[in-house]
Design goal:
Radius of gyration: 23 Å
CATH architecture of the largest domain: 3-Layer(bba) Sandwich
Largest sheet: 6 strands, mixed
Number of helices: 13
Strand order of the largest sheet: 5-2-1-6-16-15
Mean pLDDT: 85
CATH topology of the largest domain: FAD/NAD(P)-binding domain
Structural class: alpha/beta
CATH superfamily of the largest domain: FAD/NAD(P)-binding domain
Shape: globular
Strand content: 5-15%
Number of strands: 16
Length: 486
Amino acid sequence: MMQDLRQDLRSIRRVTPVRDPIHVIGGGLSGSEAAWQVARRGVPVVLHEMRPVRATAVHKTGQFAELVCSNSFRSDDAETSAIGVLHAEMRRCGSLIMRAADAHKLPAGSALAVDRDGFAAEITATLEAEPLIEIDRAEIGAPPSEWDSVVIATGPLTSPELANSIRALTGEDALSFFDAIAPIVHRDSIDFGIAWFQSRYDKPGPGGSGADYINCPLTRAQYDAFIDALLAGEKTAFHEFEISTPYFDGCLPIEVMAERGRETPRHGPMKPFGLTNPQQPERKPYAVVQLRQDNKLGSLFNMVGFQTKLRHAEQVRVFRSIPGLERAEFARLGGLHRNTFLNSPKLLDQTLRLKAEPRLRFAGQITGCEGYVESAAIGLLAGRFAAAERLGDRPFVPPSSTAHGALLGHITGGHIETIDAGPSSFQPMNVNFGLFPPLTPAPTRDADGNRLRGPTKAVAKKRALCARALNDLESWLAGALPAAAE
């Protein structure tokens, strides 16, 4: 599939070669996508990645687009889900990341989960085989002044040297928050006399059957005991520079959820709704822990929503108190890493250029988007913008009614500062319908003329937003692609 894609894309490049390369710093999902988008327009690119020369606290390999979580792409529903319509838009934009994800998907209900090793290997092989992409395995402390077009896509683990150079350019400190990693359990260590397979509401997803999650039920007494153990467990000590760093609400450690209220986990990752234990169908569980397939072999399962800052020994003790996981063997325990992002609404223009030094563009999580898909989408835009500029074309910004445009709008200008929020209250954001401009007019009746009410009206609104996004994306692509890609 990837070989065919490369051949198709080479056939649409400009006849006149472009010699001056664009430099992309960072080989994660955003940087990989940015480099691919530049190259597919006939523009040479140098992709700089410090791994494995210099390791990070989270990555284990030197592969491009390495993931640390299996279900990194979330819902694939392009009719009623904001992230699903972002998937669809990226596919229509020729995204390398989405093509590799589709080629390596795993069963995960209505979500798009991928085999992490196969996915990263596919991305790495494709980029290494592309003649217009030069790979440089070295750390970049600061972009040399002779590089006239640079995309910085170094993600949440930007090296200290590069972070310091960015601070010097922007004149202010970067903002930071914590992101966390969930434990992974060996399937054969799970007690299926207690646990069972089922997707919430039996909903199948891409490559799934409707029974894609392992569910571990808890009674009220078991839940209370688990929360007590969670709250009492010894936590990871923070470094001095980390103490004042806030969490991102979309990826809270499970114990932090419990600290915010004993019932909070039960209405989050431990919610029991849409699930029925076939071994005790008449007895509804008070709470449920779900595990999701993490590798293609189906031998490893990820504890959904169980990001944690518990010490490793405490994780084993506390998580083995969950029914069905009493003898759990962990392939990986949870952990924390620090995330860094810019005050992008102040620092970046609409095409992601640094206002203080326009030769530099930023992409991915460092811009203040959250999530692997969102990071790759911003990398896609940064690559397109940089290539268009190099080719002498005008970079076209996608309409705000598209998922790409809505996310870009949040990063570059959608945030509103308030008087009591301090110097900057800009925070990372997943793509969501709240970022989209409202429908004009909003749907009030269905196709049969019946008035829409309650949940039916909400679903109809989501469908209309998704349909408008994809329609407007097609119009944008028809008018925005450089001549090389028409």
